[in-house]
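dumping this here before i forget
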Amino acid sequence: MVLEIIVVFAQQHDLSADCVVENFRLGVQLEMRDKNVAIAAVTPSGLAEQSGIRAGDVVVSVAGAPVSSMASVIAAVREQPAGTWLPIQIRRGDSTIDLVIKFPPKT
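structure:
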């Protein structure tokens, strides 16, 4: 429910560079930094941390699609079914890194 509210908010509002949106399912806070979607914070022991995502990373693509807004990242995570994998490409410093987020199956 909370994630759906975040997605609707992100889609209906022009998010400014100082706005931070939290993605509870993934365990990150997103922010816009120089027209890029960046990871502002990572929840300890969350899926993002377990997948190797760190605060300061810039999201380049999700599921092979280039990222241009926080809403596109949130929507991709929201639409990912339980028990599946989501490829994500991040930029960390001068390096581009391919990671895979493994969503746990429903219990």
